[in-house]
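[worker-b] picked up task from shared queue
[worker-b] task type: protein-ligand structure
[worker-b] ligand name resolved to 1,3-dihydroxyacetonephosphate; SMILES cross-checked against name lookup, match
[worker-b] sequence length check passed
[worker-b] input payload:
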Amino acid sequence: MRKPIIAGNWKMYKTPKESLAFLDAFLPLVEDHTRDEILVCPTMSSLGYVLEATIGTNVRGCAQNMHWLNEGPYTGQTSPTMLVSIGCRHVLLGHSEQRLYFNETYERVNLKLKAAINHGITPIVCVGELLAEREDMKTEETLRSQVRAALRNISANEARRLVIAYEPIWAIGTGSTASPEVAAEAHKIIRHEISHCCGEQTAENTRILYGGSVKPENISALMQQEQIDGALVGGASLVPTTFANIVHYA
Ligand SMILES: O=C(CO)COP(=O)(O)O
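[worker-b] inference finished, payload out:
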């Protein structure tokens, strides 16, 4: 059984004060919820506050990125040991906004993935095709090569905690969600490639989340697909009641 994850990616929104105000409103709305793991991913400046405010609750704070080394002359970066030191046990890796605007590559995602695993941090690796790739019938090829590059030299044992997020770039922030069938088809391709890289059992156990214009109105149809094990929510996770509704309708 794969326990679903509902994660809210706050991107570059919310100061520490706004993050804490969100949690004040949100935590009571989901406090009895045990069916899914619930994550929020604030910016680095808010992460410590969020981690502290969620101690003893069913919500966890997740970093939006990290470096693969423990320390060094890398301005602007945060290391896995630094995340662990503030109690952070989840990280997003290879988000499309990192890939599109900050030259993130799957070679680096692979290094980060290994570092996360070595530090006991659950990695949520993002993959997903551009609209042009979908239109050129290159979705399968793109997803397979992304998964293969991210999972290079990762053993089945290391991939135990792996989570993948399928986020088609054409669905992010556009309001046009992938249909449940289209998403499920992509998840099947991803699961197949995981099986290729790390074995069938790993593929069966890996949670694959869908992301891209998830809202309270479309979450339950998406979650009805056997292949879809949760959601990575952007814009709709910024408002406590909206995100709580997504958690409840999932
Ligand atoms: O990028 C996303 C989550 O990581 C999706 O963003 P939206 O839900 O705003 O489309």
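[worker-b] attaching auto-annotations
[worker-b] Residues 9, 95, 167, 172-173, 211-214, 232-236 surround 1,3-dihydroxyacetonephosphate (CB under 6 Å).
[worker-b] releasing lock
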